[in-house]
Specification:
- By secondary structure, this protein is mainly beta.
- It has a domain of about 300 residues: Neuraminidase, CATH 2.120.10.
- The protein contains three helices and 29 strands.
- The strands form seven sheets. A five-stranded antiparallel β-sheet has the order 1-26-25-24-23, with no helix packed on it. A four-stranded antiparallel β-sheet has the order 2-29-28-27, with no helix packed on it.
- The longest helix has 7 residues.
- The protein starts with a strand and ends with a helix.
Amino acid sequence: MEISMTPYLSSRRFGDGDKHHFFGYYNKSTWDRGDRRVLALQVPMMDARLHPGLEAEVGYFDTVDSDAFHVVDTTCAWNWQMGAQLQWLDGISDSKIIYNVRTNDADAVYPGFGSRIRDIHSGAVSDLPLPIYVVAPNGKFALSVDYRRLYITHETIGYSEHGGPFTLDACPAGDGIRVMDLDTGAHRILVSYDALKQYHHRASMDKAIHWVSHIEINPGSSRILFLHRWTERVEDETCFLHRLITINPDGSDMRLLECSDHPLPQLADDFDPDAVGTFDYEKSEYQISHPLWCDDERIIVWGPNDGSIHYHLYQDRDAGEVAVVGEGMLTENGHMSFSPTNKQWLLSDTYPDSGTNERILFLFNIVDNRKIDLGSFYADPDLKKENRCDLHPRWNRKGTKVCIDSVHENQRQMYEIDVSTIVAS
């Protein structure tokens, strides 16, 4: 299956195709600060049902050395959507990375899971007691959640474990989002699930299991956003309810920016969750998803506001101020992020078309409302929810190139697309 690209753009694939490569999510750059090294996970197969012993190699492509792939470690703490949360520790140095690993510590807060900091030059390693979800840009702290809980509530972004999945409390006061100091490993609860349930309580929360996802830290490391989600039927994502919330790193000044609580006829006893299509959830009119900081004050998100669903730009300091982005043009959910160097450019994608199985990668200029399709990429419809391959587009540090994961060549590989001529216009 061939790629359909805008004719004047140049693109290339990382890797020789002997093994498969991917990075995962859209919320961080694969490139180091110098735009030379590109992080990736290397695996021997395009897709597989994940299990606790399945190993991925952690490494990077060196674009100055003919894209040679350098393996620095292995990990069994990963999934197809988010990888191992592999990322550069920009706030510390240009050679340190962090990623999730499995451990032998059965007494850990989240038994069997932790994270590792590695210097790719010296090989020095520092192990931490919690798995990470996202790292503050200043490199001082990370946020953590229980990936075992995610495996139950939202399997696509969770980690399986031996003997599991296990029964977990629906809304514990002793767990939630945790903050971990990257120097010492000391950690504390930022906000508990029980506290979230009490905050602007809704009746639909009473019988539900609760979790958080899409946790992001603003560029100044001073503010955190996350999605609080709850449901009575974890096997059907269209039954998920959502809230967009922000909070300070010390747990103060929590703000509710959006809530999509709504009636759920799917909870009827005779409803068949197996009748729900793979991407129906992503196209729900009630879903709040893929929030990301534009800067220290503004948040881009796909979700409903004032009765209609769009790409919306929220002002964190003024919870009442919400603007529609790309009205009439950006009409589908996607993985969006602003250029690191020019905030008028928004990068995003679509989910597969139900007829063609094609996904569109595009740029959108929020100043002159100009949408530019970069390419169309085929997605194998036989890939299931847990092992699908979203494009998850990511910027390089200069804002001139884009990296995606794709399976359009019947391999799971990473591709670089040069957009410098577009963003310069």
